[in-house]
Design brief:
Blueprint lengths: L9 H17 L8 E12 L18 H11 L4 E8 L3 H10 L3 E5 L11 E8 L4 E8 L4 H4 L16 E7 L2 E9 L10 H15 L9 E6 L8 H6 L4 E2 L2 H4 L15 E6 L11 E7 L14 H7 L6 E6 L1
Parallel strand pairs: 1-2, 7-8
Antiparallel strand pairs: 1-12, 2-4, 3-4, 5-6, 6-7, 8-10, 9-10, 11-12
Helix pairs in contact: 1-2, 2-3
Pfam family, one: Exo_endo_phos
GO molecular function, one term: endonuclease activity
Keywords: Endonuclease, Hydrolase, Nuclease
């Protein structure tokens, strides 16, 4: 059995160098006391691993140590990253933290129970040299009063996977991240209640002057099919704002279908259309790992789906 702490095989070391070089070109560098890099990534079924540098066709799971090295290198480029689909089994996550080193930490939920919850956790991984926890960590629960608002299209039940809110501090800026993974369902209409419910929840929080902090950023896998469709309009119905840099058609979310608009990073604007953030948004995008990560192994996109993910990381850079 191989270990993530072993010396890298030469071909994997070369692939990792190519990945680093590509990340250098496409992700802004961390600038001391000047910027903040926030990301979200649905890492498909992030749980058990095969402890080999290269898994064989007969191995299950397919995700191997080479995959984890690449995942860690991508995560390393951000100050804090919200991760969806972390499973009950934490072997893969623990190995990634070993690669990241002692300056990195995480905070995560317990497993969502029930079939629809898919045995998933919500997690944040963060660079403690740049970002620290600032006190708040909670899962959002639907008030009973909202479950009676059926005529208004609100939730008639709890979120399948409870949204997870955590507050962080970077320099003198405090901000709250709220991550979630909307239930996909059998049809797009199955997602409307949860999307409208989270939009209402966040709007209520953002407008409360006594709230913990108004720097409120929603991010995660919202399972929105396309730009401008009903799901997208539902998500922004309470005033959530997606910056144009992340609406650009070149900023894709899915390795299989460039039209999908699943993952989002969004916040609120006030009545004068001014950002309800003390952070200044600079730029954002996705990171397309298909041509770099594991590219020395001749893998299909279907194989990458099992070994890395079917989602690209989505990121935003803010000025401090």
């Amino acid at each position: 059995m191989d270990s993530i702490e072993d010396v890298l095989p030469l071909d994997i070391a070369q692939n990792l160098k190519e990945l680093k070089d590509d990340l250098d070109l496409k992700i802004p560098p961390k600038k001391l006391e000047k910027n903040l890099l926030i990301a979200t990534w649905n890492i498909r079924g992030f749980g058990d691993i095969t402890r080999k540098w290269k898994s064989a066709a007969s191995d299950s799971p397919k995700r191997d140590l080479h995959s984890l090295i690449c995942i860690a290198e991508i995560i390393k480029r951000f100050d804090v990253i919200a991760v969806q689909e972390v499973k009950a089994n934490l072997k893969g996550l623990r190995d990634v933290l070993k690669v990241l080193g002692n300056d990195w930490s995480l905070i995560l939920t317990d497993v969502n129970q029930g079939d629809a919850g898919n045995g998933e956790r919500m997690a944040y991984i963060f660079d403690t040299r740049r970002v620290n926890l600032s006190g708040l960590a909670c899962e959002l629960v639907v008030p009973n009063e909202w479950t009676n608002e059926i005529s208004n299209g609100m939730l008639t039940k709890q979120f399948v996977r409870s949204p997870y809110a955590v507050s962080f501090r970077a320099q003198d800026q405090t901000f709250i991240l709220v991550t979630l993974h909307i239930l996909y369902g059998k049809a797009s209409s199955d997602r409307i209640e949860e999307l409208r419910g989270i939009a209402k929840w966040l709007s209520s929080w953002a407008s409360d002057i006594n709230a913990y902090h108004q720097n409120l950023i929603a991010l995660g896998d919202f399972n929105i099919d396309k730009r401008g469709d009903l799901l997208n309009e539902t998500f922004i119905s309470e005033g959530l704002y997606i910056p144009p840099a992340l609406q650009n058609e070149k900023v894709t979310r899915s390795i299989f279908d460039e039209t999908k608009y699943y993952d989002q990073i969004a916040w609120f604007k006030d009545s004068k259309k001014k950002n309800n953030l003390s952070l200044e948004f600079l730029t954002g995008g996705n990171y397309d790992f298909v041509k770099t990560a594991l590219n020395n192994r001749g893998l299909t996109k279907q194989s990458l789906f099992f070994m890395l993910s079917d989602h690209y990381p989505l990121w935003a850079e803010f000025k401090l």
